[in-house]
Input
Amino acid sequence: MATGGAPFDALSSLDPETFAGESRAVINFLADYYRDVDTYPVQPQDLPGCLRALLPDAPPENGEPIDVILEEVRTHIVPALTNWQSPKFFGYFPMNASTAGFAGEMLSTGLNIVPFMRVASPAATELESAVVDWMGKLMGLPDRFLFSGGGGGVLHGSTCEAVVCTLAAARDRALSRLGHEGILRLVVYASDQSHCTFQKGARIVGIPRSNFRVIPTSASSGYGLTSDSVRDAVEADVASGLVPLYLCATVGTTGLGAVDPVRDLGELARRHGMWLHVDAAYAGSALICPEFQHHIDGAELADSVSMNPHKWFLTNMDCCCLWVASPAALTSALSTNPEYLSNVTEESAGAGVVDYKDWQIALSRPFRAMKLWVVLRRYGGAGMRAYVRRHVEMAKWFEQALEADGRFEVVAPTRFSLVTFRLRPRHEGDDDAVDALNRRLLVAVNASGRAFMTHFVVDGKFVIRMAVGGAMTEMRHVQDTWELVREKAREVGALP
Ligand SMILES: Cc1ncc(COP(=O)(O)O)c(C=O)c1O
Output
């Protein structure tokens, strides 16, 4: 173990011996964390400022030993964490960690290369192009999204970033026809279930706020869009001189896991010259199983598709796959070519050379392909399908348990591994009281530290979301959580 305190540590900060020793200490620390995380409260019962009060006002002047630092992580930081890798974490959507994801991340971060252009690291660029093609094939995407089929993909850090890039590409494609002043006429369409990133992205690329249409959905379509409702909105806009620009279809919405009809929306988008984006941030992982691939039937009509391996695909944060049918549409919106980045040889600037700086917002970027490649190599398609199916089965079990207990209702069909439920009203008109009861139920479950869930509101109703998908979640955790929900339902006043 390196000694701390000496002011010169920073001058030999990549000394291989120290690197090996200190990294081993961190890995041992994390292995202990994964071994014990099941016994920690999933969400800490902390008070705001509890960590801040323990930290000095300024950084140390002299470096400290890694074991002292790790001890402080153990005593100060871990107790105030919400433990996303707990097998009883069912909030938001899962953010998977795995041994292979960690190994890939270590390789990426250890090599610490920056593949913003092919010449800046040829192997990283080629690995990225290969790995996004692999993922596209696993998910059954049409060939037009693969490099081998004339399209291509890139690894971003998040769906939010990917969406901004596709909106910029769609905007520039439209403005090349309309002229720049046309931006005030461009309209973006999403559903009331689409992720808020579309609204934010539309603002960032300059679409007037009043030109963002939020199209209502309802229980009758399982909270998916209907092409009739989108068509009505589009036709009304066209009649008033506006220009439909971009339509978002979601496969697996955040609140309820709803699915929009990709083919119907694709046909409509084609008729009106709109860019269609398919957001499969969470449920994209399920699309590797043939039984889920009907959800992207019609994807050949889309312009872009995205999904997050960092959610439910055993790939540590961060990693989002974005595929486009026309790389040129993306790069013409995003490319820059300052002298200090221009390619100096003919081969490096040749046709077909991918410079990923032109496929994203930032210039510098990590070697994410390494991480996804290690995950795919280590677990394989069959392993990943088994992984996804295991969670789907657990979610089905939980849904059936809810249905068998007359006090609960399942709010939207459980299509993947997200279960949405609530205690049902006992009388006509007691909706407010039932909302309050469900709120108390969620608070009680989370306060127990024995599970963590989040909520959503649909049709004015407070709904509890249980997103199964943790790397360490087993059926027994789901069964224990069901017992917990029943116990807390009794405590908050739901009649037995
Ligand atoms: C359907 C959907 N789209 C987009 C996002 C945003 O993803 P990111 O956090 O990678 O930007 C989420 C996040 O949960 C999501 O569920």
Remarks:
- The pocket of pyridoxal-5'-phosphate is lined by residues 93, 158-160, 195, 197, 250, 253-254, 279, 281-282, 308, 320 (CB under 6 Å).
- DSSP finds 13 helices and eleven strands in the chain.
- The first helix runs from residue 16 to 36.
